[in-house]
Structures are given as structure tokens and as C-alpha cells.
Please model this.
Amino acid sequence: MIGYEYIKRIGKHPAAWLFRTELHPGDESLLSCAELARAERITNQPRRREFVAARCAVRRILAEVTATEPGCVHLATDESGRPYMTEDNRYDFSISHSHDMCAIAVGRDVRVGIDVERVTDRPRLDRIAEFMFSPDELTAWRCTEPARRVAAFYRLWTRKEAYLKALGIGLNGTQARSTSTITLPPENAQSAWHAQVGWHWTEPEAPDGYQAALCWRPSEP
Amino acid sequence: MTDEELKNLVVKALFEVAPDLEGEDVDPDESFRDQFEIDSMDLLNFIIKIHEATGVDIPEKDYPKLTTLVGCVAYLKHHRQGAR
Model:
């Protein structure tokens, strides 16, 4: 059995795991040459350990889901930088980590994105919101009562980031995204939006101080 | 601003948004993501910080040009003229 805390599975919908990253002896032997090379380039040791631990975890989880061995899971990235499993394209997965917390989602015949963030009152939160949120989202967020504004920021950020990751649009990649032109449905209208375009959102329960969101839709036939 | 001053400004902004990296050597040609596993929010915060420090408007389509130290310096050098 894999030792990661399992948090959600609904029918054939994606399963998600949320856990603190932990490196075990010999873990690096699970990584591909390309991943090892990338790990070597991360000079900050805590960040390097988090990267290696997350990559090892995703191999163990994919191995369990697909009934194989972690060493037999081969990963590659598509043009947008989105990772995929080369052996079985029926499965889609997404990884996110924030400090020592890692979130992984895996689903069959779905497109999936997950995000986890440590909730902190960062400087320039309002400016970040201006860049990330659409005008409607920004207006709604600014109407939130001040005591709940930081939490509301991370709820919207993680839901949006999970959606963008599912789409394969990433700020960190070579492709810029127009995040402020994308508006998520208000939470009270998500069922209507789901009926229209098929996307679902859930918020996996995260430890205190963290916020997570999972987004998925069935794969195109 | 000289290239060296721009470089120092960029590194200072990077360390401000990711304080745990303070004192790390920054490879000028390696992407911040590959070198430090910078996440989306830190990268956005970094770009905002650069904008505030230089006055240079950075449209979203240009974010990929700011993923390395060399790229940041070249971009700011080219665009600072227009920001004055």
C-alpha cells in the first residue's frame, strides 16, 4: 500500500491525494534520467527534496492506480509542459506542491487539474488578484468582508489554477495565459456551468493553513 | 541603469518573493522554475515586484520572457526607455 493520505474518490471521478512530502532512502532511483537532471539543477536543497518527493509520490500513486510497479511508470510532458503517462493515455493526472504540502489527482477518461497553496497574507495580494482574476471575479472578491478576504483569495486562486492546469495553460511554461480573460462560474452557478461545458470543481479538505481545489471533466470522446 | 544594477534589482525581487532562496547563486541562463521550482503565484508576485521597481508595464504575453535572469535584464533594458 502506498503511504499517502487518500482524500477523495467518487465513482470513476478523479481520486486525489494530499500529503506532506517526505523523501525516503532510495527514492531518487525511481526518477527518470530527465527528472534526475532536473532535480540536479534545483540548487536549493529543501526545494529539491520537495520536487523529488512529489515525483516519487506520483509514480507510486500511478503505479497503484494502474496495477504496475513505480519503476514501470514512464512520464513525459506535452508541448504545454503538462505531464502524462506514456504507457496508458486513458489516465490523466496533475501534481501541485506548495512548501511541504503535495497534492496529486489521478483520473481515468477525464481531464484533471489540481492545485494546493499555503494560505498566507502575502504582500501585494490585491495586485496579484488584479493580474489573475477577471474583472467580475475581482469585483466579487473585493466585496468579500475584510476578515475573509485572504481565504476567499486562495479559494478562487486554487479553483482557477486547477482549471488552468487541466486546460494545460500554465504561467510557468513557455506559453503565456490570459488568466484575466477567463472567468470561473460563481459557485452558486457551477451546476449550470457543468451542464453546459462539463467541468466540475471540488475542494478537497486540506490541513489548516492550506487550500486545495480539484477540477475535472470527462475526456472528449 | 547598468546591466549589473538591473541584475541586482531582479535578484532582489526574486529573493523578496521567495525569502528562503536568499543568498543562493542565480544561474543567469537557467529558468527560475528549473532552478528554484518557483510556483505560479511567486512568479506572478515577482513580475509585479519588477513592475513596481522599474515602472515597466509587463503584459501577460511577455511573462515567458521573464523566466530567466538574462531574459529579465534584456527585457527591462529594452523597455525601460519607454517607461520613463
Observations:
- Chain A touches chain B at residues 38, 41-44, 46-48, 50-51, 97-98, 117, 122-124, 127-128, 131-132, 157, 161, 170-180 (CB under 8 Å).
